[in-house]
């Protein structure tokens, strides 16, 4: 080949090599730039990224948060309802934050750094960032009032609620959607509007929404919860007895209030406990007593004995029902003699009305014996198993005398009360004699008249809570 033909070919080859090299350099630079971009967007938001309507592309987490807070703080939000302007609010009046609704770090972690060139060409990328309005209720209430919103003139939103039909079955009353606005619903409306980059908020978005809807899971959960309460099983174990409260009884105690919330009728529970006491407790039962002069006698019920305490037990039963489940336990017991082999014990006061004698036993030993005068005919002493509940010295007995039909005041040196109807043991210095048939002519109004000399000793021996057996 001639030299003249080779030279042009060499020139073309050199030019082509230069072009190839240039392309290789450009490609290498692009690759380097792409890699740098991947590294950069590991901790920076991709281009065209927005949070709450604020562009945060190419910013790191702290810069993005600061930018959003700065921009939103300058925002003026207008409020409208039915196409009518109601007013506006400058957001710098309130503090904005993102406490739980959006994790800025999560926003970075979810983005794909390797698509950053595509994101430049693609449309805006919105992060699910919903600002929270950090304002107390009074601040938001002032905003509501400033917009001329009067909830008394608006229809209130009502939750779907449960109600009881005549046959006792549960029914659901459908929710009602109103247009009332409270501080929480206003907060949510503002936050939602900001997250969407809105500068106008329709008050419809601030209408309070029902918590429970007819077909929602919440009302279904309430139904299931109420039925679980109805199925509560409670067994009371006491004094070697075991009583399971009937299921129908529990259902009868349960009811729904005006808000559809389960309530328990504690007064009805107390009535049930009274019935249990009448059947099982010693307070309402008769007592077998080994007397000094008459042997084994039956003493009527009085104020002595054990019983299920209605005031203490009713709230516990109500709590069990509201929690639901199965319970087997001892009820709240009050009074004396519960689970005792010898219910009355070996320290007591014995009043034998037939013999007109009072005896005091202490730790099984007879320590005092004295004649007495009991109630006159017409105001007889009421027999029963009692217990001392009060001791007084130098006091006045006051009451009404049905025989004289007058009020009376009678000073005594010693007074021991044992029932709730004014009966007690006291000295009677006006009595000239005691015992025998004295009660038939000069008997008391029901109290146990005792010689002063014996009464001094009785007062020292007897203690509050000591049984008093009168028969």
From TrEMBL:
CDD domains: YkuD_like. The keyword Transferase applies. Pathway: Cell wall biogenesis; peptidoglycan biosynthesis. One of its GO terms (biological process) is regulation of cell shape. It comes from the Bacteria. Pfam families: YkuD. InterPro entries: LD-transpeptidase, LD_TPept-like_central_sf, LD_TPept_cat_dom, Transpep_catalytic_dom. GO terms for molecular function: peptidoglycan L,D-transpeptidase activity; transferase activity. Residues 347-471 form the L,D-TPase catalytic domain. One of its GO terms (cellular component) is extracellular region. The keyword Transmembrane helix applies. The active site is at 426 (proton donor/acceptor), 447 (nucleophile). The chain crosses the membrane at residues 21-41. Keywords: Cell shape, Cell wall biogenesis/degradation, Membrane, Peptidoglycan synthesis, Transferase, Transmembrane, Transmembrane helix. This is ErfK/YbiS/YcfS/YnhG.
